[in-house]
Design a protein that fits this description.
The protein has two helices and no strands. The chain is mostly helical. The longest helix has 25 residues, at 2-26. 8% of the residues are buried.
């Protein structure tokens, strides 16, 4: 069960990073500037949640 949750959290972190890049380019255009700022904020929050969840469930198997 931990592996499934960790995998989902990793996907959330990856998608949030991609959305951050997209929102970074949206900020440069006049029409989508406000949407880009909101999307940037939401993607940073989602990345923190996804990365934190993934790292808290990560275990080393040696």
């Amino acid at each position: 069960m931990k592996e499934i949750i960790s995998t989902i959290a990793a996907w959330v972190a990856i998608i949030a990073a991609l959305l951050f890049v997209i929102s970074f380019f949206m900020v440069f255009f006049e029409k989508t500037r406000e949407q880009g700022k909101k999307l940037m904020l939401y993607s940073v929050i989602a990345f923190i949640i996804g990365f934190g969840t993934c790292t808290s469930l990560f275990t080393l198997r040696i």
